Amino acid sequence: MYKYKKSITILVLCQMIFAVSWFNLKELKINRIASTPAFQIRFMEEQADLDASSFMGMVTEASSGQRVVDYNLLERKAKYTLNQEDYDILLRIVEAEAGCEDIKGKMLVAGVIMNRVESSRFPDSVKEVVFQRGNGTVQFSPVKDGRLDKVKVSEETKEAVKRVLYGEDITEGALYFAARKYADPERMKWFDNSLTLLFSYGGHEFFS
Fold this sequence. Notes:
By secondary structure, this protein is of the alpha+beta class.
């Protein structure tokens, strides 16, 4: 009887040791998975066909209380697809008009350009919008003074343009913008009398 009880005790202890060992190995595996990068997004700024991926995280609780994130990749398409020439011109006009602005200021300028491309009141491509003339006058001063061809596009400008091309719109429908401090007074009169002021941000006023 004593030997029988001793055998049972040893068996129970062995099972407990096995259970603890299994749990520790399982927890180690979970931690390893949690520390592994779930995804990588590559975005090539120079390509005409922009593409990217976004993700949605679903959080579950491990038995140890540690959080493990399971990422499901969701494909997200660009709202606008530009050819290389239009893309380069968009980068340059944003840099020339809003190079001293923060990323939001750059996004606003890029957004106005794309609003015009989408509007029936303006041409259908970035190039035509940027180089459009009305009554012999250019629409954007960097085209007139040559800054469009001289700017060095920053990484922040690329990021701002990318966000707009993927559909991030903060323009409230604006089709015009002006820097009153530097604008021709007569031209600003036309803005004030003919357009609706939507808001101001940074050094620009935005109109519809």
